[in-house]
Amino acid sequence: MFSNRTFNIVVPIVSVLLGLLAGAVIMVSFGYNPVAGYAAMWNGAFGDAYFLGETVRQVTPYILSGLAVAFAMRAGLLNIGVEGQVIVGWLAAVWIGSSFGMPPVVHVLVALLAAAVAGGIWGFVPGLLKAKLGVHEVIVTIMMNYIALYLSNSVIRGVLTDGEDRTGNVAETASLAAPWLRELTFYSRIHYGFIVALVMAFTMWFLLNKTTRGFELRAVGSNPFASEYAGMKVGRNIIIAMVISGGFAGLAGAMEGLGTFQYASVSSGFTNIGFDGIAVALLGANTAIGVILAAILFGTLKIGALNMPTEAGVPTELVDIVIALIILFVASGYIIRWVFLKFSKEGK
Amino acid sequence: MDYVIEMLNIRKEFPGIVANDDITLQVQKGEIHALLGENGAGKSTLMNVLFGLYKPEKGSIRIQGEEVNVEDPNVANALGIGMVHQHFMLVDTFTVTENIVLGSEPNKAGTVDIKRAEKEVQALSERYGLNVDATAKIRDISVGMQQRAEILKTLYRGAEILILDEPTAVLTPQEIKELTQIMRDLVNEGKSIILITHKLKEIMQVCDKCTIIRKGKGIGTVDVKDTNATELASLMVGREVTFKTDKTKATPGENALDIKNLKVKDSRGVEMVKDLNLHVRQGEIVGVAGVDGNGQTELVEALTGLKKSSAGEITLNNRSIYNLEPRKVTEAGVAHIPQDRHKHGLLLDFPIGENMVMQSYYLEPNSKRGILNFKNIYKKAKSLIEEYDVRTPDEYTKARSLSGGNQQKAIIAREVDRSPDLLIASQPTRGLDVGAIEFIHNKLIEERDKGRAVLLVSFELDEILNVSDRIAVMFDGKIIEEVKPEETDEQELGLLMAGRKSEKQGEA
Predict the structure, then answer these.
(1) Is the omega angle on the peptide bond into residue A12 within 30 degrees of 0, that is, cis?
(2) Which spans are transmembrane here (chain A) (predicted)?
């Protein structure tokens, strides 16, 4: 009845609908009006130019962190360390952006590159340990997240500032700010970063599907034994995959550092951009186009949700539950697949 | 006549195909009944119907004369049907007894009464001459013993009818002999056995009756004593099959592969290849015979660069290929048909066309400046698919959805197409049916006739005897003797493989 490709499109859509439906049931059972709730969410995401701008801003880092997770996944690696790679990318971008003077365009490009390199280094360490010593990447990347968080805090306090809790703003030459877009969207925090995100999505698609290196990466992800038999260097490909994945994550951090906030600050907890990237990649079936669509959904939910308490009185906690339910349904996508198969069998 | 099992006019359809079409299988008490058919003929489907995993569209099942409705495997178990699967369903870290009672543990005040179970299992084992240690852990016993544990499991659960699915595929010749005896003992005790197989020799040796399925259709049932292997083969395949592979005498040339004093350790650091010497000349097939686990796997891995050797010398046409990386070995002119085609030979989730370029994707014209030329890759794949008769809907189909024989043909197409100086074929026909085996043997001989050196590693004595020009017997990491196929027989080879040197010294 369905081809595999159709499944890959139908299952996420059904999961999202089921998640929204389950969210509605929960809203009803707590005495809220789900129609009003979802209407508030829609208005909060697309209701006017300001909300639209904010949604785009939120989608931008999600695309990049989703790409980071998806890229590693395609090479058979679970990069839980995207969060840490985002943090070091953010820090590196702000460091270049605030501490050096460079001509426009060059400055922002160097800052972006620094973010990608920092994230890449953060990915290189677990990649190397996995390739050479067989240490599982999940363990190392989780630990690297904490190193990134506390290292970043200490660098901000001790190196970039003199005991302050946040750095100064990045120079105008290094900023991704798009004043005309901001004006157009009633001063939302939208910035040029979404172009970077889309270019990177194309880059990932091209790299994986068109290049010789991408063929190796996918082969190693699909069957490392056969790849070794075919003469590919499994270890080297693992390291390359982790570095590129980290690079995408680092850029996600740069979006916040050079775009949304224009500075880096001491933080007691994680940004969650990296962790949400795992869900984005999962929902997007680890493909570039899927990640873009999933990031749009997540960004919309996050931004739209902010409007739900004010317009419909639905508490933010419920909104988080709805988002969690959607992820749950996506993760159990195989059940939906099974139900479809069952029905198509009975139908015959 | 009394039948213990009757499956009458069974029909089972799947979307698009009829897997079983009007198949009748009648098994008498105390009989070993073969179910013969090529891969994909519908044997497994029929057994899954009997086991209640599939519901047939038409037909009926009678057990001991009673018409039954087998709704699920539990019903089948209750009716006394037990199945030993080709891939064992055992927990590695549990003992034989623990595996056997799993799911129906005898309990004593809420705890498992393992002592009682052990006694029962041991008694059963002795009664049927299975010789299994009930307290041994599964991971510590041989594959043959694991299979017996599976047989014990069905007996413990009161099976009267045992279904054995390709039981000899994983066994050594000696273990096969023992299994044959066990099967005879079982029927003497009144059990009935259905043996699923495509090995004709086994049928001729142990079975009483044989039911043949071809492309989902029941061809009929024959008395084994009234038939012969050739007739069975043509019934199964639907055309005449020759067993003796036609080949002219080899005209070997220069030494191509030279292995001197090779030592290889396995992953645990145990030396598996010990001071091995072997050479293969151009235009010659050398068969390495031996029981599994005598270092053949390590030898092949060392030759192909998948494993580092610890000492020795390997040269191909006088150039050293000792401890080169797999890619360098490939580029030096070695092709390798791996033992495990799913693990090493194929990227199952990649299109078959891309599997055809697994070792050449990075070379022009497949790749230019780091960008793959898919048009070219698929054009090449298409011509290989046609040339080697790989049955696939198209070159974009995933390797996973091809049958075993066609997967192997694709691997051979890929390997042979590179015009290698040395072709290493490790268990090239494992799990394949007669038609595919014939094809592969002919390809190996064709390569030989083109002047290439062929190294064939196989546990199947028939294959070794039929295809090789020279046989090297491997035992305990060494080549202990070399013999000519026309001057030896299975008996002698079997003894050599067990480590007993013959009186006459073979020429090295």
Answers:
(1) no
(2) 7-32, 59-77, 84-102, 108-129, 138-156, 190-208, 238-258, 278-298, 318-340
Residue B374 placed within a domain: no
pLDDT of residue B114: 86
Please state the ipTM of this predicted complex.
0.84
Q: What is the pLDDT of residues A169-202, one digit of tens each?
A: 999 999 999 899 888 888 899 999 999 999 999 9
In eight-state DSSP terms, residue B484 is: -
Contacts of B267 (CB under 8 A, 6+ apart): none
The verdict on B40 touching A (C-beta cutoff 8 Å) is no
Q: Please tell me the number of Cα atoms within 13 Å of A276 on its side-chain side.
A: 24
Q: Are residues B83 and B175 in the same domain?
A: yes
Same domain flag for B196 and B314: no
CB A64 within 8 Å of CB A248: yes
Phi, psi of B279 (to 5 degrees): -135, 150
- State which of B208, B237, B266 marks the end of a domain: B237
Number of domains in chain B: 2
In this structure, the answer to whether residues B212 and B329 fall within a common structural domain is no
Q: Nearest-5° angle of CA B109, CA B111, CA B113?
A: 95
Does any CB of chain B come closer than 8 Å to the CB of residue A29?
A: no
pTM for this prediction = 0.79
Instruction: Please report which helix (H) or strand (E) contains residue B76, including its range.
Output: helix B73-78
Cβ atoms within 10 Å, residue A206: 13
Task: Note the Cα A198 to chain centre separation in Å.
Answer: 13
Instruction: Give me the pLDDT at residue B1, please.
Output: 60
Tell me the CATH number at B135. Answer: 3.40.50.300
- Helix axis angle, B143-156 to B114-127, nearest 10°: 100
Domain membership of residue B312 as a residue range: 255-333+420-497
Q: How far is B440 from chain A (nearest CA, A)?
A: 21
pLDDT digits (tens, 9 = 90+) for B112-136: 788 888 999 999 898 888 888 999 9
R_g over Cα of chain B = 25
- Residue A229: closest CA among chain B residues belongs to which residue? B344
Nearest to A223 among B304, B336, B347 (CB): B347
Give B374→chain A minimum CA distance, Å. Answer: 8
Residue B72's SS3 state is coil
Do B7 and B120 sit in the same domain of this protein? yes
Going from N- to C-terminal start, the domains of chain A cover 61-299
Chain A nearest CA to B290, separation (Å): 23
Q: Which two tokens stand for residue B398?
A: 């995933």
In-domain check, residue B162 = yes
Tokens encoding A279: 């869900």
* CA–CA gap between residue B22 and residue B219 (Å, rounded): 10
Q: Are residues B201 and B301 in the same domain?
A: no
Q: Which residues contact A14 (CB under 8 A, 6 or more apart)?
A: A329, A336
